[in-house]
Each structure stands twice: as C-alpha cells, then as structure tokens.
Amino acid sequence: MVVGNWKMYGNLAWNKTLLESLVEGLRDYRNADYAVCVPTPYLFQAQAVLAGSNIAWGGQNMHQFEGGAFTGSVAPHMLVDFGCSYVIIGHSERRELCYESDPVVAAKFEVAVKVGIKPIFCLGETREEYEAGITEEVVARQLDAVLSRVGPDGLAEGVLAYEPVWAIGTGRGASPAQAQAVHAFIRERIAEQDFEVASHIKILHGGSVRVANAAQLLSMPDIDGALVGNASLVADQFIAICRAAN
Hints:
This protein is of the alpha/beta class. Helix content is 47%, strand content 14%. It is built from eleven helices and eight strands. Strand 7, helix 10 and strand 8 form a beta-alpha-beta unit. The model has no long low-confidence stretch (mean pLDDT 96).
C-alpha cells in the first residue's frame, strides 16, 4: 500500500494536474493499494477526479468527537460525505505542533472506524528519543494507547504507519534494516494479543521515503507499504514508488 500525504500544499490548478497524472500513471497497477490524503478543502476535488480510478482518497486529520462547538475542526461524517476511505491519525506534526496526546489519537482511531473510515495510525520516535535508545518504549506506548481503547479486533480495522520523526522531510531516512527492526517489533507486540491480527495488518513506513530507497524498504518482510510525504507532490516520483510496490 502506498499513501501520499500532501500536507499543507496545493491549489486547484496544481491539484488537477497532479491528480490527473496519477490516474493515468497508476491505471495499470493492480497489485497494491494506492491513496492520497489531501487538505480538507480539496477533498471535493479529489473525489471528483479520482472516482472510478484505482486510487482512493482520504483526509489528513479529523476531530475525535462526531460534532459540537469545535470551531475550525473537521467532524468524521464530513470526511464520509466526500467519500473518504482513509484518514491520517496521530501524525507526528499533529502530535508535536497541535499537542495531540496518545488518548486523543486513540479516540480518533475509534471514531474513524465507527463511521466507516480506515484510520492510518502514525507512530514513531523523535530524534531525542531515538538517540536515547527508547524507540521501542515510545512506539509501544503509542500503540498500546490504541490497543487498550479498541482491542486487537479494532486495530485490525486500520492501517499502521511507523514514522521515525527524525527522518520526516530530512532526507535522512532509516535504513531498511533499521526500519524492519521496528516494524517487526510492532508486529510482535500486536501478536502478543492476537497473532492473526498481527499477521494481516498493514504496517507502512514513512519518513523520507523516496524513489531511491522505496524498493529496498518495500522488500523488507514486515514493511507493507509507504506513507509518502514530499515525493507524493511530484507525479513521476510518486508513480515510481507505486511502481515499486506494484
């Protein structure tokens, strides 16, 4: 599975060119799943251009409550209205810049599943945590927050995305071996509660995934795809990563 995270980029004309290029470029790729998560104002455009293609679309965030006096927030059903299959939950930028806690992320995961959207649940450590040697401790804490809320059966309704925060947008991504080790740890921790769920859940890798390293990363046994940032904004690069997955 390959998911593009457009972050806070785009405009109507630029989006149209990129989306139409992706539809054409991915038309014959049928051996993996493909999606783009676009800024909320452009969900209508993604729906219009991608409907009927082999590319799904989704939101980048949503509120943990289904409605209420939360000015500026996006309710889960609003994403449903635009045909979203996915929503990114717990991205490191939301955790750091918007102070989203583990319990808040877990609540968002639960409500996404409730309304029929598959959450893409991000987890990963900062550079300070990585250098302190507590990667597994941090990832376990983030994972356990969701597991304790929805259980392994609930977790199975989503997709996981391990993103070493120190690699996001830096071009200094984790090596395939480093990434594989953490992915294996995540899968093993899920297996402690439910081996079947652990065997089938998709665990994507994020953080400076690019054309040069995509094939190596995707060849690792516990890496089931990629959550792509910068490279998802360039049609040729995103298509090449999807080609590697295909």
